[in-house]
Amino acid sequence: MSEKFSQVTNAALNITLPLKLMLLVALVAAMAVSSSAQTQSTTGTDEAVAAMITSTKTDPAISASASKSLIGLANAPKKPSAQGAGSENNAYIFVRGYAFSVNRSGGNPAVISSSGGGAITAIDNFDYGTEGAVKFEAGWNGPHWGFRGSYFYTTQSAQEDRTGTAAAPFFVSPRPLNVTFTGFATANTPATFRERFRLHVVDLEGTYKWFSPDWSVVLSAGVRIAPSRQTYTAQDTFGAATTENLNYTQKRTGVGPTAAIDFRHRLGKSNWWITGDGRLAVLFGKLRETATFSNSGGFSQTATRSDSRTTFVGEGELGLEYSWKFGSGNEFFLNGSFIVHHWNDIVNVMPVNPVGGSAFTTLDNPAAASTRQGSLTFTGGAFSFGIRW
Question: What does 189-212 look like in DSSP terms, one character per residue?
């Protein structure tokens, strides 16, 4: 019994060992196959990527598509710049010259002719004719927001000359602050009456712009500073080299808000544009006046006065512009415009009696400020040139 068990056991051991060896070989083989499959999978992926790249380079359809896409990106239309309306510029500067006629409301008396009894025989006003002005402006516009500043200056002057005659034994000035130039001119003696008005205007504003290839509209708001000075002088020489002088000065500095709207519109696809703008301003400030009369005989008289004034300003312009590009995206432009500017209560009127009345009656009443308020209206043209870059 034990002998048979021993024979069976040995047989089993002899069979099991080969099976174990076979199983071990099979396991090693399986591991080798798995590793090979993973390697092939990775290689296949890399080859696929390389193939895609190669096909992009070599396949005309794919290559053209990619190239077309890149060119399209490079040539994609760019958003118009902040200067707008057909311009690729952000900054600008221009110079403008004005020529206009000046109308003064409220009267503008220069000299009064008087009879020996002091009755007025004639009243002559200053005639300004055609006057001029100049303006400088510069600004910068971002995509929509920007800023600009400008400076405007005008000076106006007029003169009336008289020579004493027997029919008009003396001349009288208007009575600023009730200080009178009597002008008892004898025959053939000269008398001169002059007036000058100077106005400086500074505008500082923020801007906002809408634009397209053919339009631009700009809104602006800010502050206006406008100092002005008005002078009146009367001089004569009579008798034994006796002289008389009257000097009157009115100064004011108005400060207040201002707002404007500007537009440009292209005519078709040409380089011509219709332009226009409108502006309003309200200025607050003090008016200070001084009048002094003196003669060579030692007589002297001085009067002063000040009060508060509010000035309303309205401006309108309509013009035609031509522009063309030069250099690297720069633009030069010329503009001609029709202009109307109105300044309410900007000059002082010296009231006088009508013909037949007294040349010496006190008229310049400090309490009646409205009788001394004069307005200016400028009507004419403007020509400007400038650069955008």
Answer: -EEEEEEEEEEEEEEEEEEEEEE-
Question: Could you tell me which residues come within 8 angstroms of residue 218 by beta carbon, excluding any fewer than 6 positions away?
Answer: 141, 207, 208, 209, 260, 261, 262, 263
| Residue 254: partners with Cβ closer than 8 Å, 6 or more residues away | 224, 225, 226, 227, 228, 283, 284, 285, 309, 311
Please tell me the distance from the alpha carbon of residue 138 to that of residue 384, in angstroms, as a whole number.
Answer: 13
User: Could you list the pLDDT tens digit for every one of the 389 residues in the chain?
Assistant: 445 444 444 444 444 444 444 444 444 444 544 444 444 444 444 444 344 444 444 444 444 444 444 344 344 444 444 344 444 568 999 999 999 999 888 778 888 888 777 788 888 888 888 899 999 999 998 888 999 999 999 999 999 988 776 655 677 888 888 887 766 556 677 888 999 999 999 999 999 998 888 999 999 999 999 999 999 998 887 666 678 889 999 999 999 999 999 999 999 999 999 999 999 999 999 989 999 988 887 888 899 988 888 999 999 999 999 999 888 889 999 999 999 999 998 988 887 888 888 877 766 665 555 567 889 999 999 999 999 98
Identify the bridge partners of residue 109 per DSSP, sorted by sequence position: 125
List Cα–Cα distances, 357 to 75, 113, 287, 352, in angstroms.
Answer: 82, 11, 29, 9
User: Tokens 């009178």 appear where?
Assistant: 180
CA distances from 8 to 1, 16, 20, 22, 162 (A): 11, 12, 18, 22, 162
- Per-domain boundaries in the chain: 2-74, 91-388
Q: How far is CA 256 from CA 93, 192, 204, 337, in A?
A: 24, 37, 11, 26
Element (H, E) at 315: strand 300-326
